[in-house]
Amino acid sequence: MVTRRYKWTVLIILSAFLGIQAADTYILSAVSPQLIAEYHVNYVTLGILFSSTLVIATVLYPVWGYWYDKHSRKSLTAILAFLLGSTTWLNALSRVFSQFFITRLLTAIGYPIPSGVYTLTSDYFEPKNRGKAMGFINAATPIGYLLGIMIPLTIIGAGLSWRYSFFITGGISLIIGALIYFFIKDLPRGNSEPELEGKLTSDIYKVKLSDLKQILKNRSLLLLFLQSFFGTVPWNTISFWIITYMSIERKLPYFTIMVVMLVWIVMMVAGNVVSGYLSDLLFKKTPSGRVVLGTIVVFLSAILIYFTMYSPTFTGFLTFGILTAFEIPMAGPSVNAAVMDITVPELRGSATAYLNFFSSAGSTVGPFLGGILGAAVSLKYSITLISSATWIICGILFAILIFTMPGDVRKLRGILKSRGAELDGLAQGR
């Protein structure tokens, strides 16, 4: 029996790993002015570097997802933590841009952790509480973003080298890897499903390579994958360029940027947590509840980002930015929980990997395209156009999901009910 206290302790550890991975991803944004000055590179070059790193992670997602469904999820997650930490240290040791570029690509090997984190979480938390758990985990990303921004800005503000920030995040990743390996337990896949509660004593449901085609036959999963591609384009465009935009185009001092980012990140964390509760509440009312929330969120995001970026005053920029920061992450927990709502337990690692494959593919577009439009026109124009256009596309895809989700949810519950009856029969036959 897994206690509630242990569940949340595991969730904290897994969230910490997602947070430090986010910090490592976004730390490049905070140090980009220093990289431009030291290595004599421009917006486009940095955009290529960021996008190339995400390409590596994108290619590896399906591989790690399959391994997560087949092998120990805690062991693989610990390995990724050690890889992330050690390669981040190599980033700090680079002395020329070519070395930094290569070691940064190596760091991407440790990025495909969500497949293990989300599928483990789904086996610790039952469907009715899964949105809350996903909201808690997703809240780690903006916290990690804050760390990825605040650590280097604090170090740079103190007159120290940006390299120390890489040593700090890399060290934290190594510590988390040890905690994952020695503390977290692997649970049987499907352990938290009501139909299988108390019936699984071992991990009897495991993936076969031939099973992966089932993922691509699911209508709702395909729509979730597509919206994930478009949904991450604005996220990574904003995340990568917003610090540079505030510094160069808004001409804000570092201290002001730190305050603005701190306020926005706090609102992002709150948005994730609140949306997790809303997601579960709406899911209890209708199988389409999670995607109804997603539809509202992404259409509203397209409007709010415009008012934020085109506010002529700093007060307007900050105020609309607060509203935007609270609102834009609210679709995330619903998407992650929705994948679990329509996927059999032994394929959830791979399904999450495909979700992140598409999102990473979208991530590679944002920074590079943002750099090109930013150089040609302005970063204000670039961030606004890219974000609004892609969020409108997401809204259309979410609207279609409202009609496809109920049937796929009922189909999964039927499969799990049949498995529960089969396990009951086996138990009675002993």
Describe this structure in words.
There is one protein chain. The protein is mostly helical and 430 residues long. The protein has a single domain (4-187, 211-429), classed as Growth Hormone, Chain: A, CATH 1.20.1250.20. The chain is built from 15 helices and no strands. It has helices at 4-39, 43-70, 73-93, 97-107, 114-124, 127-157, 163-183, 213-216, 219-249, 254-285, 289-309, 314-327, 332-341, 348-376, 379-429. α3 runs antiparallel to α7 and α10 packs parallel to α13 (332-341). The longest helix has 51 residues, at 379-429. The mean pLDDT is 88.
Termini separation? 22 Å
Q: Report the uncertain regions.
A: none
Task: Please state the CA-atom Rg, rounded to the nearest Å.
Answer: 21 Å
Biggest sheet statistics: none
Helical content, roughly?
over 70%
Overall number of domains: 1
Strand content: under 5%
- The tally of beta strands, per DSSP, is 0
Number of DSSP helices? 15
* Average pLDDT level: 88
CATH architecture: Up-down Bundle
- Shape from CA axes? globular
The CATH topology corresponds to: Growth Hormone, Chain: A
- Helix- and strand-based class? mainly alpha
Short account of what is shown:
By secondary structure, this protein is mainly α.
Provide keyphrases for this structure.
430 residues, mainly alpha, Growth Hormone, Chain: A, 15 helices
